[in-house]
Every structure is written in C-alpha cells, then in structure tokens.
Amino acid sequence: MAHPLNTPLGRFGIVTSEDGPDGCVASIPAGAMVNPLTGTLTIAPLAMLVDHVGGLVNHRRRGPGEWTVSSELSFEVRPDAVDVIAEDPGEPVTAMSKPFAAKSDVGLGLCELSHRGITLATATVRSFFISAPEHIGEFPDGPTGPLPPGSLADRMAVRVAESGGSAKALQQLPDPVLNNSLGIVHGGVSAMALELVASAAVNAGRDDRPLRTASLRVNFIRQFFSTREGGPESRYVGTALRVGRRSGIGEATAIGPDGKVAIVARLTAYA
C-alpha cells in the first residue's frame, strides 16, 4: 500500500505491504540520502521506517476505545549499513515487525531491517495504550506516487540552525504534512533529525575516517510541535559526550517552541 504524498509516510516514500496485529512489513527508499549538517550519506531514514513498522504492529493490537503513543524507539545497526545501501541505492530498505510478549498497558514491537536480503539492523518500538482521543485528525485525500523530489532536509522541513560551541542544530520548520493524526511532528521525523544532529556532533572536525552510527535510542517525553508562525523556533540540538579515535557517544534533544525538551536521544558511533 502506497501512502498519500500529503501524509508523513507518503512524504518519505514508505510502502506498507503487510499490516496486522501479528506482523507488519514496510519499506522506505534510503539510498543517496545526505545529512544536511555534514554533506555525507546517512542512515537516518531507517529511524522513520522503524517508527512506522514497530509502532504499527503495536497499534494493531489496541482494543476498543484505545489508541497508541510511542514512548521509546531504539535500533542497533551495522556500521557499514550506509555502504550496503549505497551498493544499490535504488533498492528500498525493508522492515518486518512482530509483537513481543502479551499485551499490557505497554506494547513492544520487534523489528528487523534488511536491504537486498542483507540484515542491516534490529530495532524495537514501545507504545503506551491510552484512551482514544476525542479528536483524531483525518489526512485529506491526495495522490500516491513515487518519492517526491528534493533533499532529505527538504522532505523533513529542517534547516541548519546556529548553535553554540561544537553543538550541531537543525530547526524544525512548520509543515502540516509532517504532523501525525494528533497534530504534532511525526515521531519518525523527529527520530531522523535527532540521528542527524547527534551523528554530526560526534563527527565535528573529523575529516577522515568518519564515525558511523551503530545504535540510537530515542525517548519521547512530551508532544513536540514545529516552529509556530512568528513564534520561538523548535529545534534539534546534538552534542558530543565523548569522542575517541575509533568511537563516539552523542546526545540529542528536541526542544519545542516553549523551550522545553520534548524528546531525547543517545547515539553511539564507530569508525
């Protein structure tokens, strides 16, 4: 199932081929995607795919009158994943998810990502089961089709922002297409941006032998809104906690227009 281009999933070319409480399968075009902060190839789109397929299998297990909100996303990825994808950039990355353990107040989806049959990553998404909101936004009808043109930054509606010291930052510009049905920035979009700023931070000043993302853990704390017209900006800020010759640890936060941290992430990377 191709998703309408005026939805977050359609914007990034996600196609869902299986969708149910026992398992979900979806794919995303991830080749030739570039980090706007470094100009290098990135595996950030994998975070969007994980958020979708892992959250979807949790969502399909909800009971009557229930809804789901993601609380945590994580993945472990082979450090050469970007090279594997680059060997055939036109081939999408595929993810399969399945539920783990009995349903309770929290659901856990397990995921495996692959490219041309080569395993790239394992991942998990945790979701809370909550009472269904009274008002859930409906996406307008729109066309489906191939991945829309433009860079990854264009599709994410982010731009490089000023930051202090060695920190790296992206501003989240308003774009209603990137909002989920609750009217906040889609969690997969935020997870991608947090990977971009954290990986840029650990690679600051590193011109040779880049550190490649090996793991990412994202915790969703509160609702994250994009920059509001005429108001304070929303941004993602990445900082390096430790950088060595062959490894690095970065931290990233999503800060809303109210100045509060809405999402946090920890990234590890290896040469």
Structural write-up:
The protein is an alpha+beta fold and 271 residues long. It has one domain (8-132, 153-270): Beta Barrel (Porin). Helices cover 17% and strands 38% of the residues. The protein has helices spanning 8-11, 45-59, 81-86, 152-156, 187-202, and strands spanning 15-20, 23-28, 66-77, 93-100, 106-115, 118-131, 158-161, 168-172, 212-220, 234-243, 247-255, 261-270. A twelve-stranded antiparallel β-sheet has the order 1-2-4-5-6-3-9-12-11-10-8-7. Helix 2 (45-59) runs antiparallel to helix 5 (187-202). The longest helix has 16 residues, at 187-202. The radius of gyration is 17 Å and the shape is globular. The mean pLDDT is 93.
Number of domains: 1
| Strand order in the sheet with the most strands | 1-2-4-5-6-3-9-12-11-10-8-7
Low-confidence sequence ranges: none
Taken from the alpha-carbon principal axes, the silhouette is globular
Reported CATH architecture: Beta Barrel
Helical proportion, percent range: 10-25%
| SSE string, helices as H and strands as E | HEEHEHEEEHEEHEEEE
Mean pLDDT: 93
Tell me the β content.
35-45%
| Largest beta-sheet characterization | 12 strands, antiparallel
Number of helices: 5
InterPro entries: HotDog_dom_sf (IPR029069), Thioestr_dom (IPR006683)
Protein name: Phenylacetic acid degradation protein
Pfam family, one: 4HBT
Organism: Mycolicibacterium tusciae
